[in-house]
Design brief:
heterodimer, A: mainly alpha, B: alpha+beta, 2 helices, about 35% strand
Chain lengths: ~425, ~120
């Protein structure tokens, strides 16, 4: 086997897998059969391309090969006892018209169908995330399992169960009708943002940033933005992720320790990502009213474009959090708003906002609440109180790197206080 | 077309009071009529309360009959519909339109197909 054909097959596998899989699922009407046939086709590609050279359109070659393998599998399938039904499906799959449908729009629609199916609300959130990453992303089951700190057999089981539910409960393979689209699209965006956040701030383990998940979420965001160019919130989410991700290199030092926003070396921020993010955001903001992702991206843009912590427009950031809270009240947004008020010099307002949250038992173990409280107390000149609040935050931080940073702050304040 | 069983659960304490009951009955009637007209309805009934239920098991050849439902829960199985619809979204759509959906819960289960 020459390395060139293997390399070509690997590239085709990474880049075209999702598109080919999406089309196959529609043609075959069966998630598992499509995946199995695709696996067969890639194995066949390595042999055939080595012998005959790499075809001009590797994706089309693999789609056609996979469909043939699917027909073979259907012929052999003894479970499908109904001979008439089986022959009917084989005849359908042999229709020559199927070979001609490689135009980009059809392929794009198939990928959207696949995204909406993987993110269907009838699947549990962890299953949606796993299935989306497996089907549309370039990650293997093992990579997904490691990224989410789950044993590989458990992750494989989660994916198998989700595919089984899609087949047995007949979750439809389609782009939702207009009246359902806003809700369902919000669900898809939530899955992508969850993947990004898990990468950006790993909920557990000893690594703060799982860059591979950030990269994967951004890739999915780009795909969605390309497939749904008229949806402002799709562009806004991509902008938000790019603007956060621009700081990835500065956020952790050479020892893997967290570097607070104000202490980051801004020359390490990725200018390309900031430019791309702000351009996308400008376009998204021209649509009114701005959606929640556009508001969050606007906040991220104010941080990303400030030359120094002092030049950051914290008043505007606090106002944007206020607008977010007005749209969809949540304690998480209030915590962020309180922190922004503190940075904007409105410490008393921040403390007033955070006070009731500290009394809420449901939030007692929410580390960012205590960290924001600590920062406000520090700004108010109460170093011992701030040290105690940082210690409380550290106690509840699941991530080891974040915990160490919170403890460092607690110790610093305890000694100066 | 696939069939779905829509199992209707609810806490009787949440059900409408006596003055609302007649109107609620009419809503159930209209809903069932709508299902019938759409061609989706294969069957459906309301069930008597769980305190009228009897459970039966046979263990080691002995038939054990006992008073009461399979599981004692606050949310009881109050009825069901059997529908013939194209996919899960259609079944979920019908479930969301049930007259009790704002206080009850509907479990949608695909009917097993033996090929």
């Amino acid at each position: 086997m020459t390395p060139a054909s293997t390399a070509a097959a690997e590239v085709a596998f990474r880049e075209e897998r999702a598109a080919v899989l999406a089309t196959l699922i529609r043609q075959l009407g069966d998630f598992q059969l499509a995946e199995d046939a695709l696996q067969d086709a890639f194995a066949a590609a390595i042999v055939a391309w080595d012998r005959d050279g790499v075809p001009e359109r590797p994706g089309a070659w693999i789609t056609t090969a996979a469909r043939r393998r699917a027909i073979d599998r259907l012929r052999r399938d003894r479970v499908l006892a109904d001979r008439v039904q089986r022959l009917g499906r084989i005849a359908e799959l042999q229709t020559p018209a199927l070979d001609d449908e490689h135009e980009p729009s059809a392929v794009g629609d198939d990928r959207l169908r696949l995204i909406f199916t993987c993110c269907h609300p009838a699947l549990a959130m962890p299953a949606r995330v796993a299935l989306t990453l497996r089907s549309l992303g370039g990650l293997t089951t093992g990579e997904i399992a490691r990224a989410f700190l789950v044993a590989e057999p458990a992750m494989a089981q989660r994916i198998v169960r989700a595919k089984r539910k899609i087949a047995v409960a007949r979750i439809p393979y389609r782009i939702p009708p207009d009246e359902e689209l806003p809700d369902r699209l919000a669900g898809v965006l939530a899955v992508v943002y969850l993947v990004f956040n898990e990468g950006w701030s790993a909920s557990g383990g000893d690594r703060l940033v799982r860059g591979e998940l950030c990269v994967e979420a951004i890739r999915l965001g780009r795909l969605l933005a390309r497939l749904m160019p008229d949806e402002g919130e799709v562009a806004a989410l991509l902008a938000l992720m790019l603007l956060h991700d621009s700081r990835r290199a500065a956020r952790v030092d050479e020892h893997g320790e967290l570097v607070a926003l104000d202490d980051q070396d801004r020359s390490l921020w990725d200018r390309g990502r900031i430019r791309e993010g702000t351009t996308l955001l400008d376009a998204a903001l021209r649509r009114r009213p701005a959606g929640p992702y556009a508001l969050q991206a606007a906040i991220a843009a104010l941080h990303a474009t400030a030359r120094s912590p002092q030049e950051t427009d914290d008043d505007q950031i606090a106002a944007l959090y206020g607008e977010l809270a007005r749209r969809a009240p949540s304690p998480v947004i209030d915590v962020n708003r309180a922190a922004a008020l503190g940075r904007a010099g409105r410490v008393a307002d921040g403390l007033a906002l955070i006070g009731p949250l500290l009394g809420d038992a449901a939030l007692a173990s929410y580390a960012p609440l205590h960290a924001a409280h600590a920062d406000l107390l520090d700004r108010a000149g109460d170093a011992p109180g701030a040290a105690r609040a940082y210690a409380t935050a550290a106690e509840h931080a699941d991530n080891a790197v974040a915990r160490r940073e919170l403890l460092r702050r607690a110790r610093r304040l305890a000694t100066t206080g | 077309m696939p069939q779905y069983m829509l199992l209707i659960y609810g806490d009787p304490a949440d059900a409408p009071g006596p003055d609302e009951q007649q109107a609620q009955h009419e809503r159930w009637f209209a809903y069932t009529e709508q299902l019938r007209e759409s061609g989706a309805l294969r069957g459906g009934d309301a069930l008597e309360r769980p305190d009228t239920a009897t459970t039966v098991r046979v263990r080691d050849g002995e038939t054990i009959v006992s008073d009461g439902p399979f599981a004692e829960t606050k949310e009881i199985l109050g009825g069901y519909y059997l529908l013939d619809v194209p996919d899960l979204d259609a079944a979920l759509g019908w479930a969301a339109k049930m007259p009790n959906i704002t206080y009850g819960t509907v479990e949608v289960r695909p009917v097993m197909v033996f090929e």
